Amino acid sequence: MKKAKTHKPNQLRIIGGLWRGRKLTFPASSALRPTPDRVRETLFNWLAPVIHGARCLDLFAGSGALGLEALSRGAARAVLIDRDPHIIAHLRAHLATLHAQGAELIQADALQFLQNPAHEKFDIVFLDPPYHQGLLEPCCRHLEHHGWLSPGARVYLEAEAELGAINLPPHWRLTHSKKAGQVGYHLAER
After folding, report:
1. Mean pLDDT of 129-141
2. What is the dihedral of CA 109, 111, 116, 122, to 10 degrees?
């Protein structure tokens, strides 16, 4: 009898703040692509002046790498959105393990979620959708047009490295832009 394949869980390491060094597992899946450690380190260096006390929205949360890192580094609130109930269950377990305060999980399709009028404004948004699906620009438009952003909000954009220029809403400006291997990552300010 052939043994069923079991997927080994992947690991995520919190790289800074209160939970620095904590390792959390998440299910092995080709759909999950956690932001690499060195990219997260650079991103949170960029966000250091504004992360403490910030309200964060982690769209396409997946492993939770960005939202959990934000909470670890002093964000007051992080709302993590993912459509997969299995992923939400794992994130719920991580939040309980960490005794995380200020976190909220929402099971929803991120693009559909953003098409609703905002019930809260966010200071930092992590936008790391699946690659090659053309989701960055519509998400940016919905963030702007449906009132999800506070004045001066920062929006982190992660995409495949070969993606060309991103059409940002008119009064956003790109403040940082880098590539690391297959990842292109950018920070915009409203």
Report:
1. 92
2. 100
Place of tokens 């993606």: 163
**pTM for this entry:** 0.91
In three-state secondary structure terms, 12 is strand
The three-class DSSP label of residue 138 is helix
| CA distances for 143 relative to 63, 69, 116, 117, angstroms | 22, 22, 10, 9
- Write the DSSP symbol of residue 102: S
User: Is residue 167 a contact partner of residue 157, using CB atoms and an 8 Å limit?
Assistant: no
Of 73, 87, 105, which is closest to residue 29 (Cα–Cα)? 87
Q: What angle do CA 190, 40, 142 make, to 5 degrees?
A: 35
Band (30; pLDDT cuts 50, 70, 90): low
- Which residues is 80 bridged to in the sheet? 58, 105
Q: Quick check: 4 pLDDT over 60?
A: no
3 DSSP 8-state letter: P
Report how far residue 101's alpha carbon sits from residue 134's, in angstroms, rounded to the nearest whole number: 33
- Asked if 125 and 143 count as a contact pair (C-beta separation under 8 A), the reply is yes
